[in-house]
Amino acid sequence: MSEPNPGEPSAEDPRLLDALGQTALVIVGLLTSIAAEHDLSLTQARVLGILRDRRLRMTDLADYLGLERSTLSGLIDRAAGRGLVERSRSAEDGRSIEVALTDVGQQFASRAERDIAAALAPFTARLSPSERTSLTTLLERMLATGASDA
Amino acid sequence: MSEPNPGEPSAEDPRLLDALGQTALVIVGLLTSIAAEHDLSLTQARVLGILRDRRLRMTDLADYLGLERSTLSGLIDRAAGRGLVERSRSAEDGRSIEVALTDVGQQFASRAERDIAAALAPFTARLSPSERTSLTTLLERMLATGASDA
DNA sequence: TATTGTTATACTCTATAACTATA
DNA sequence: TATAGTTATAGAGTATAACAATA
User: Fold this and answer.
1) Confidence band of B13 (pLDDT split at 50, 70, 90)
2) Which of A3, A5, A37, B140 is buried most, with the most CB atoms less than 10 Å from its CB?
3) Which of A37, A50, A107 is CA-nearest to residue A76?
4) DSSP code, position B10
């Protein structure tokens, strides 16, 4: 994995790695700030985002986020305490609990989505429309790949 | 801020926003995993990364990371306890403490850098060399901008 | 027995407030 | 008085281990 593979130049691109890392940290920082404005952690905000168009069991939601079920229990406890999500026992499997957004949670999620668009606008605005299209294509291609082995 | 500004199409690009957000979360997730393999949090890893080619005062390091000084005290306590960084009183200003990597910390940082390159390789490898160049350019342009108003 | 979810526990990250030492 | 750093405290996020209920 760390051999200098001669036919595989992708790791020899420090500028790209830097740009990706920087971009990631900046954007996650922005997302974290926006969440904080609504008194949410980034993780809580992600929960709302994921549940925006879905109702999920605790286990599946934990898998989505890459967290332990026990971690999710606390997360959902706090979100439910604020009236953002609701738990309900599954009809099919008596062991499962399904989580869904409340109306308040939906409104929260919508507002956050607008705020995110606004916060990212200064960044994307610096690119021309065709550059934005290129960037979208490149990022989507990169993600589609990586997902298959990460 | 939420008016539908007709001459400003940058916020009307949900696919780009999605791609940026997804990319950011995936990459930060990878960085977090790599740090965890070395028993470091992402924040601790960032400290090592920042100190890789610098010696900084506590306050400046806190500013770099966007954290309170009190938060940094704990962070540096733990890193120093593991022998990764060293504190030393500033010669110029008796109030200031300078932080620098130890040899062990340097080795850690080098190893982490290689691991990051290896972890990102599957993603970047899916793009052709010229696409990688384009992506680098686009990301750098976007970052250069946003930094001026975020 | 295996799976779903929760609880208990412990540690890290983070901020705010109060403090000490230096400028 | 203002700045640099630490400590005390508190809350959130996280994991591991032990547990209850259901399958």
Assistant:
1) confident
2) B140
3) A50
4) G
**Is B140 within a domain?**
no
Q: Is residue B102 part of a domain?
A: yes
> pTM for this one?
0.89
Could you report the per-residue pLDDT of A63-72, keeping only the tens digit for each? 999 999 999 9
Interchain proximity B122–A146, CB inside 8 Å: yes
CB of B149 less than 8 A from some CB of A: yes
pLDDT tens by residue, A86-104: 999 999 999 999 999 999 9
Q: How many Å apart are CA B62 and CA A53, to the nearest integer?
A: 38
Q: Please work out, in degrees rounded to the nearest 5, the angle formed at the alpha carbon of residue B30 by the alpha carbons of A84 and A66.
A: 35
Among candidates A11, A127, A144 on the partner chain, residue whose Cβ is nearest the Cβ of B118? A11
Q: Is residue A103 part of a domain?
A: yes
Domain count, chain A: 1
Shortest CA to C1' contact from B71: nucleotide: C14
Q: Give the domain CATH number at B72.
A: 1.10.10.10
Would B12 be classed as within a structural domain?
Answer: no
CB-based contact, B81 to chain A, within 8 Å: no
Q: How far B145 CA lies from chain A's nearest CA (Å)? A: 6
Q: Is the CB of B93 under 7 A from strand D?
A: yes
The residue segments making up the domain with residue A52 are 26-121
Kind and range of the H or E element at A71?
helix A69-81
